[in-house]
What does this fold into?
Amino acid sequence: MSGNDARVQAVHDITNREPMSMKTPEKLEQMWATNVFNLAKMQASLPKAVFKSIKNTIITGEKLDPSVADAVAMAMKDWATAKGAMYYAHVFYPMTNLTAEKHDGFISVQGDGNVISEFSGKVLVQGEPDGSSFPNGGIRDTFEARGYTAWDVTSPAYIMETDNGSTLCIPTVFVSWTGEALDKKVPLLRSIAAMDKAAQKVLKILGHTNIAHVNSSCGAEQEYFLIDANFAATRPDILLSGRTLFGKPPAKGQEFDDHYFGAIPDRVQVFMQDVEETMYKLGIPAKTRHNEVAPGQFELAPFFEAANVASDHQQLTMTILRHTAKKHGLHCLLHEKPFAGVNGSGKHVNWSIGNSTQGNFLDPGDSPHENAQFLLFCGAVIRGVHKYGPLMRAVIATASNDHRLGANEAPPALMSVYLGTQLEEIFEQIKNGSVTESKRKGVMDLGLDVIPPLTKDAGDRNRTSPFAFTGNRFEFRAVGSSQSVSGPLVALNTILADSLDWVANRLESELAKGLELNGAILTVLKEIMEDHGAVIFGGNGYSPEWHKMAQERGLINLPTTADALPVLKQEYIEDLFTKTGVLSPVELESRFEVYAEQYIQSIEVETKLMVHMAKTMIYPAAIEYLSQLSSTISDLADLGIDFEKETVSKVAALGNSIFESVKELSEAIAKHDFATTEEHMNYCAYHLMPLMSQLRQYVDTLESEVADCLWPLPTYQEMLFIK
It folds into this structure.
């Protein structure tokens, strides 16, 4: 079957498929967390003393009592096997943005040759996967294979159901034999502990005595594309790189804004309902679903959860989206920019901090100018973003996210803070030496008796800001759709821990001088605004004027991953992670090496794909079309008809350009003599990427000229609009 035959067959199969119907879902209360070994199930199955110990660890973060492990393991196994699970898996999160799991059976062979179902506390607490075959940035050599997984009691175990059976999944951390973190969970848990410690210092200075464990919370809005699996199967670029390396935008894209929040296509809604049912059984609080801006693009958003659990749930969400799509004959694209010319996908991370006794520290209340606790924590965030903005850029740096950052649908690659009119005015008052008032919420009368008055917030929102205050939280809008949220959360928690520690020390210093508490708070906040207020910006982040203004303010613009990742090697970043105890210098260096290697490999895979597709699919289509045109022109000439020859010249010229571009790109890929990793990344960003863009331009122009019946790849029009 030729490339075009496969494309035609794909369209036929899609348009003639039998619609998949969704069974009537159970009531939410009946399915909620049925596959989660949560506190309620623990309480029902564990001795009181054991349950009390486990609950205390989960809620307060206190050290786990090892003596309870056997009882928990027995109860967990009984629950899991009753639900049909014959295997368990220590689930961990290596530095791949993906989830890893090692499955083991509950089976235990006895001396008489019989078997029993067995699961001990020792096995629950610790596992041993290979420590060298995952990305580790030089921490482990190939011959040094030992690594450990360790049970994370703060994230509940769950049953993952598939058509092939059920598995008990146990969230764990993953470390090397020498003790370094090889995963994304260990740094996240450390960052939460560091933030808790610093926040407790500030809260005590404010006079609080009953202070519960402080945690950050996260609500990650997941954007994604869906195309039919038949199309994906005939696009090597989608299968291997997750995006289209070639493709001419259709005549109609998102110009009419008619897809955003439009009626969800029937097929997609059945898929969404299937996804949500799986999520609800796993205790993942999916709340919102809707069409996104681009055709074929959608969004799923959950309620807020504690950061560690939210991170685990986000990894599960990506897995569920991909697996469920396959069941429905769809292909889920989590790449940040799978299609040129339309919006890409992000993963807006809504982040806040608080505890059970003092509430949400980023809730301004009705009178934020009088809310000292809120102002201090918000001020600490402002200081952190200004001081460590390049780190925030580094933790969202990937080859795929580079295609999206700074484009029309995504924030720029330089970090700033949007506060909104109300808070910006308050902090400007603080900078001037006093704070006396703040804007109040208003009421909007639409002049329609049938519509009740609407509450109007004291400030607007800003979609162009990479880090925006949105009422009682900050929204980190620059995170990529395919990323783990752990990296961004680690950065936010750590810079806040550093800033809160600085705030506490400065408050103590001012109080020691004899200042009253309110005076000390105002002095510290004024200092923050004088030293770090330059990071606050409420205008259009896409405008060229802002880039110029940001440079004048001293903000750093890091347009590519090659520019951003070396930030991780800077001394002040190493000092930050060392003093907070979140990452050792060795662990930090390993992350630079891993992410740099992933960046280089991603671009090199794409260049090789482009060369292969251009030589074996695109160029032959051009030659075939030229051959047919030449034959037709010759036949018409015999009949005395002078047919236009401009198309022949244009296709021939484009074919030659593609041939030369492929040759140049092939030679560029072969270069590997780089003195440093940084040099190699820069070569990818500033030499290979422009060559790739040039080749794409030739191919996409050719697509406009070659007869549609000869084009070998499913088109944008087909992939985005045929469902």
About this structure: The two ends are 23 Å apart (CA to CA). The longest helix spans residues 585-638. The chain has two domains: 32-183, 192-598. The CA atoms of residues 228 and 330 lie 4 Å apart.
